[in-house]
Amino acid sequence: MQMPIPNADVLSKKAHIIRRLLDVLPPEAVISEPNETRAYECDALTAYRCPPMLAVLPDSTPQVSDILRICFEEGVPVVPRGSGTSLAGGAMPTADSVVLGVAKMNDVLETDYENRIIRVQSGRTNLSVSGAVEEEDFFYAPDPSSQLACAIAGNIGMNSGGAHCLKYGVTTNNLLGVTMVMMDGEVAEIGGAHLDAPGLDLLGVICGSEGQLGVVTEATLRILHKPVAARPVLMAFDENEVAGACVADIIKAGVLPVAIEFMDRLCIEATENFAHAGYPDAEALLIVEVEGSEIEIEEQLEKIIAIAKRHDPVELRESKSDEESAKIWLGRKSAFGAVGQIGDYMCLDGTIPVSELPYVLRRIGELSDEYGLQVGNVFHAGDGNMHPLILFDANKPGDLELCEKMGAEVLRLCVEVGGCLTGEHGVGIEKRDLMFDQYNPDDIEAQLFVKDVFDPKWLLNAAKVFPLSATETRRNAS
Amino acid sequence: MKPMNENELAQAIKSAGKPLRIVGGGTRQALGNDVDGGVKLSTAGLTGITLLEPAALTLVVRAGTPLRDVTAALDAENLQLPFEPMDHRELLKSWGDTTIGGVAACNISGPRRIQAGACRDSMIGVRFVDGAGNIVKNGGRVMKNVTGYDLVKLMGGSMGTLGVISELSFKVQPKPERQATITIHGLSDAEGVRVLSRALGSPNDVTGAAFLDGTGFVRIEGLSKSVAFRTDALKTIFKDHEVSVMDNDLDAWRGIANADAIAGDDGSIWRVSVKPTDGPKLVQGLRDAGIAVNAQYDWGGGLVYLSLPDDLNLRDHMDGISGYASVLRGNGGGAMRITSQNKLTAQIEKQMRARFDPRGILNTGIMG
């Protein structure tokens, strides 16, 4: 992975920068020893690592403002970091950077059930936001798989989704306002407890900007009352295509399940061996979950099961108890871990139009044969967000490169059928160099305009999202 | 100028020697601040549905397509736009044929915004021509997409100032099998919003929550048995009130969407977006100050339409209220019709416009 050459001028004044940071931060908040900065050398994309020059752990918005102002004045690159769970390398540092971690900022600032909002500091984890409103039976809807660990700051940076976003939307649909510190230290208040803000939709473009426009320190989020109950049904088919067609029919029918999850044979077998969820022996299975009161659940499942039956499932299993529901979800939830038991894998995240599922699954199978690499498919079928897991052997020279090459082909396939490179993980460094496969230079230039405005010196997470060649002039001008 | 395709649109903007006033169907020309003159650039020639895929709940449509054509095509597939765009014609005393591009450029939503999100939340892709005449695309036709910056959201509600939209993709939804509205009678404004908060804070998936003339309106939609069940659940919640139920009352919600309750009033019409519980506080404050005010609340109290005497600037009466007011009709006491959120956002917006429209020719001044 190519990264920009570290700025020698910045590296040479490390001691000076530490002194200035210590003027505004307590000693324990400034991490400069190489054995300690190594903790920040990568995120969940562990194939690529680079320790930062420094890491800082502020505990308030004013501290973040001071840090950014100093880095702005000194021309130091800054890499914002939530919990470091990015699968795309969104929080991977450069050698001349200061990693700004928001993990210490995890307070709940306000809960307001009448207006259905919660205001939190951005280092708070996704699941603990729901935890804070659980006593009143409320929850925060976006549910990325890493929700136990991932921070709201990172969710906003990547516009994270999750299994249940088919019904509730992704982060951008549940975010009402932010406090964001600009690279020059100014503090911007954008949006709030009200639904519409006047002027350009700055909040809309900040969400998903991968930490390139500012550092979000506080967020106002929409909370909802929990549904009375939820129940999954498991359906197995002897062909991927048939499962794909069943998904399309369910969506067309006007029932809106909260989740439709898909697993293929490789993943079914891997999870069976790993988690013993009791899945049937089949080519493909779907887990469809609906929510509501007993009557509502029955009404929806009746329709869904009728549709499924038209596609001759090899098995149809409706959960009869909480225990059975948990068992149906067990395999799906342990799928990534189970595939990890087989070998190393790379997780892709392209989205395709749901109608293209059968074709894309077939093509992925063909590519798997061509490259001689096994692929497991487990994904959110309802919205076409695929997660092909390409297996490789990290100890075998050249295998990672082969896997990356195949991954790039699969993502190009997603774009070709009208989809995109990434549905919820973000571009980061991982898919940076494929951006021109989806966008032409004018499309990219328009996106760079936005960065020019928010971060004119191009110091914030600047080596991410866009191909380095597209941003070189701008990065070097600063 | 009336380009007939995207390339002609790009050419028209590239070769424009003077500021342009962008017009779709012309039904919302009164929204926003005065535009400094300008040659009329119409998108009405950019019509047609490019793709309608019911199994993927996706619609791709050219910007100048009349909204009624879009609605008719969706009707035929038993689909609808989730955000239920309001019709401004009565309120603004305008006429013409609203276009889907105008809806997106002004981020026009209706009552279902409280549950399904605003117009911008249903927008999943956009093609536009920026102020230099470059054709730009962002997003696509899939529901989940985080590939690069979300310019789709940025274009929603940008009122033509960053570029002229040529094509849009939307996430659409199946029409509900049944709809019911629970009405709760005899309430003060504050009680009304409290009632709406209780309904919205319950697990009944409310898709409309409005209050006018002492009556709260709570809408639920979905499969038949489910609607019946939730109707009963809400009646139980409000058992201490006088309650009635309306079935499939589309007209009532169209009236609420279009703010019919105040559209006929004289004076200035304001639109206020607030924290729901602040809505009645704002109105009570005006009443206490002896100001004649008529109000309609939507979005659980968070969207308030007010008719107020001309020559009164509502923003002078918003101390302690979290939210924003814009003038839809009348002189509004000489206030800017719309403003930015604060000084810093105003500065960011100005720089953004300068980047996307370096010659300053697109609807100049409309957003301040």
Give the key terms:
heterodimer; A: 478 residues; Uridine Diphospho-n-acetylenolpyruvylglucosamine Reductase, domain 2; Alpha-Beta Plaits; 5-stranded antiparallel β-sheet; B: 368 residues; alpha+beta; Uridine Diphospho-n-acetylenolpyruvylglucosamine Reductase, domain 3; 4-stranded antiparallel β-sheet; 13 helices; 17 strands; globular
Task: Characterise this structure.
The complex is a heterodimer of chains A (478) and B (368). By secondary structure, chain A is an alpha+beta fold. Chain A has helices at residues 8-12, 14-24, 34-37, 61-74, 126-133, 152-158, 165-168, 202-206, 240-252, 265-275, 294-309, 322-333, 335-342, 357-371, 399-416, 435-438, 441-454, 468-477, and strands spanning 30-31, 54-56, 78-81, 98-101, 108-112, 117-121, 138-139, 175-181, 187-191, 215-222, 224-225, 229-237, 259-264, 284-292, 315-318, 344-347, 375-380, 388-392. The mean pLDDT of chain A is 95. In chain A, the strands form four sheets. A seven-stranded antiparallel beta sheet of chain A has the order 15-12-14-13-17-18-16, with helices on both faces. Chain A has a five-stranded antiparallel beta sheet with strand order 5-6-10-8-9. A four-stranded mixed beta sheet of chain A has the order 1-2-4-3, covered by helices on one side. In chain A, strand 5 and strand 6 (117-121) form a beta hairpin. Helix content of chain A is 37%, strand content 19%. Chain A starts with 7 loop residues before the first helix and ends with a helix. Among the domains of chain A are: 8-101, Uridine Diphospho-n-acetylenolpyruvylglucosamine Reductase, domain 2 (2-Layer Sandwich); 229-336, Alpha-Beta Plaits (2-Layer Sandwich), CATH 3.30.70; 343-416, Alpha-Beta Plaits (2-Layer Sandwich). Chain B has three domains: 6-174, Uridine Diphospho-n-acetylenolpyruvylglucosamine Reductase, domain 3; 178-257, Alpha-Beta Plaits, CATH 3.30.70.2190; 260-334, ACT domain (Alpha-Beta Plaits, 2-Layer Sandwich). Chain B has helices at 6-14, 67-76, 89-92, 100-105, 113-116, 119-122, 151-155, 189-200, 224-237, 250-257, 260-263, 278-288, 343-356, and strands at 20-23, 39-42, 49-53, 58-62, 79-80, 123-130, 135-139, 163-171, 173-174, 178-185, 206-212, 215-222, 242-247, 268-274, 294-298, 303-308, 323-329. In chain B, the strands form five sheets. In chain B, strands 3-4-8-6-7 form a five-stranded antiparallel beta sheet, with helices on both faces. A four-stranded antiparallel beta sheet of chain B has the order 11-12-10-13. Chain B has a four-stranded antiparallel beta sheet with strand order 15-16-14-17. Chain B is globular. The interface between A and B is large, with 96 and 89 residues.
